[in-house]
Specification:
The strands form 2 sheets. The protein has a 5-stranded mixed beta sheet with strand order 1-10-9-7-8, with helices on both faces. A 5-stranded parallel beta sheet has the order 3-2-4-5-6, with helices on both faces. 48% of the residues lie in helices and 12% in strands. It has helices at residues 15-18, 26-49, 53-56, 61-77, 91-100, 126-135, 153-170, 189-197, 217-225, 230-243, 253-268, 283-297, 327-332, 361-364, 371-388, 403-424, 432-444, 451-463, and strands at residues 6-9, 80-84, 117-121, 141-147, 179-184, 201-204, 272-277, 313-316, 337-344, 393-398. The protein starts with 5 loop residues before the first strand and ends in a 7-residue tail after the last helix. α7 (153-170) links the parallel β4 (141-147) and β5. It folds into 3 domains: 7-31 and 249-424, Glucose-6-phosphate isomerase like protein, domain 1 (Rossmann fold, 3-Layer(aba) Sandwich); 53-228, 3-Layer(aba) Sandwich (Rossmann fold), CATH 3.40.50; 438-464, no CATH class. The structure holds 5-phosphoarabinonic acid (PA5). 5-phosphoarabinonic acid binds next to loops.
């Protein structure tokens, strides 16, 4: 059997590594196998019914080819690409950019860069947003407005600001070609703008949910424009999809991970799931995963309308930075966490440490080694230290950071989340809590049709008492 380029080491979730009573038993997994097979059947059924576009999209060359071609056109024509979007409409593009482009991509001269400079404006802090717009040369910049619903207030506000600035900078009617709207094929305000005013646009399938859209135009188009090899990325996702099309928990990394985290919460009280890559390049993936997991599984009601159990709360950490910070709590604080490490086995720039101060034992031992070796040693030491204390952890091992491995890991997380939703019996594709927040914002900002929400906000404000505000 060929060695996998992405592996998941689950040893430290089990009793044999952690000590009696501290970890799970293989029999715990065995008892969940029947349920696992049922969920696998349900996922297959959803795929057949076409309700899992995140799955379909990786197998559709007819989607990938035009995205790759449009990405190449953008690369040729523009200097800067700015993604305007939030949540699932931004985090996929951001995590691919951080993981697969040069760490200083946006600062490199054009000839040393693989593609456009890419900026993902996924927040509406007026300081950062205005500064970005002031910094970029309007005539050299394309704005990719991404919103599946086409009505998210933050994204629309960004669009209106940029539209106005471009009109003023370039002259009336000249701003249109600086936009590319990525939105629902038929519905929503952004689609209406595209149709009515002839803005260039790309369609998102109606059922595609933001946080699962990284392999659609939402994530892939900015990636392709910045020079990422999107075909290899999708090939990685396909390879993982094949590997995960297996009902057997012991052979399916996504299902196994979902099962272990579910059991660690139910049986061992681990309410928190820490995702801790040992690589700066993977920080975006940590953030992307937290959104995927939290927004998919954090539900009040299960699919039968009963009170839901609620999934583990995901937390981001970074090795080694958080070894000198959060780790103290993970080691000795409440034993209510599972730490998932991501280890990168091979770095493209290992960084040799020179042999200096050899006479000083406390310094000299580092000479002749590499920074990558030190990083790996620290990651392994942390795994072991946690295990020695009987604290659950697991490690995803990537041979290297490449489009292939990143495609695999992202898809694995998507499958894991959908599988875990089956265990928690919740719908992974809705987000009623987020929608509620959006509606209250509409009410506060005076959007017609949201009077009830406005009243709700005013009622909440009336409940506030001065003496509780210092
Ligand atoms: O995953 C999700 O559904 C959300 O995070 C959305 O992506 C986010 O709220 C933005 O929504 P939209 O793409 O409709 O603007």
């Amino acid at each position: 059997m060929s060695r996998e380029i992405v592996r998941w080491d689950f040893n430290n979730m089990f009793e044999h590594a952690l000590g009696r009573g501290k970890g799970l038993k293989p029999s715990d997994i065995d008892r969940l196998r029947k349920r696992g097979r049922e969920i696998h059947g349900a996922i297959r059924e959803m795929r057949r019914a076409g309700t899992t576009p995140f799955y379909r999209v990786i197998f559709e060359d007819s989607e990938l080819a035009p995205i790759a071609a449009l990405g190449a056109e953008i690369r040729e024509r523009w200097e800067n690409l700015v993604v305007l979007g939030v949540g699932g409409s931004a985090l996929g593009a951001e995590s691919l950019h951080l993981a697969l482009n040069h760490p200083l991509h946006n600062w490199l001269p054009r000839e040393e860069r693989s593609g456009v400079r890419l900026f993902v404006a996924d927040n509406i802090d007026p300081e950062t947003f205005t500064s970005l717009l002031e910094y970029l040369e309007p005539s050299k910049t394309l704005f990719n407005v991404v919103s599946r619903s086409g009505e998210t207030a933050e994204t629309l506000a960004q669009f209106l600001i940029v539209r106005d600035r471009l009109e003023r900078a370039l002259g009336p009617g000249r701003g249109k070609e600086h936009f590319l709207l990525t939105t629902d094929a038929q519905a929503g305000p952004l689609r209406r703008v595209a149709e009515r005013e002839g803005y260039p646009s790309v369609s998102i399938a109606g059922e595609m949910v933001g946080r699962y859209s990284v392999f659609s135009a939402v994530g892939l188009l900015p990636a392709a424009a910045s020079g990422i090899d999107v075909r290899s990325l999708v090939a990685g996702a396909r390879a993982m999809a094949d590997r995960c099309d297996n009902p057997e928990l012991w052979e399916n990394p996504a299902y196994m991970s979902g099962a272990l985290h579910y059991l660690s919460q139910r049986r061992k009280g681990k309410r928190i799931r820490v995702i801790m890559p040992y690589s700066d390049l993977l920080t975006g993936i940590g953030e992307w995963f937290c959104q995927l997991w939290a927004e998919s599984l954090g539900k009040e009601r299960d699919v039968r309308g009963k009170k839901a159990l609620g999934a583990q709360c995901p937390v981001r950490a970074l090795g080694i930075t958080d070894q000198h910070s959060q780790l103290q709590l993970y080691m000795e604080g409440p034993d209510d966490k599972v730490v998932d490490f991501i280890r990168v086995q091979g770095f493209s720039k290992p960084a040799a440490i020179p042999r200096l101060y050899e006479g000083d034992e406390a310094v000299g031992y580092l000479g002749g080694r590499e920074l990558s070796e030190l990083l790996l040693a620290e990651e392994r030491a942390t795994e072991m230290a946690l295990a020695k204390k009987g604290r659950m952890n697991s490690t995803i091992v990537l041979d290297s950071i490449s489009p292939q491995t990143i495609g695999q890991i992202l898809f694995m997380f998507e499958m894991e989340t959908v599988f875990a939703a089956g265990l928690y019996r919740v719908n992974p594709f809705d987000q009623p809590g987020v929608e509620k927040g959006k509606r209250l914002t509409y009410g506060m900002m005076g959007r017609p049709g949201y009077r009830k929400e406005k009243q709700e906000v005013l009622a909440m404000q009336r409940k506030k008492k001065e003496r509780f505000v210092l």
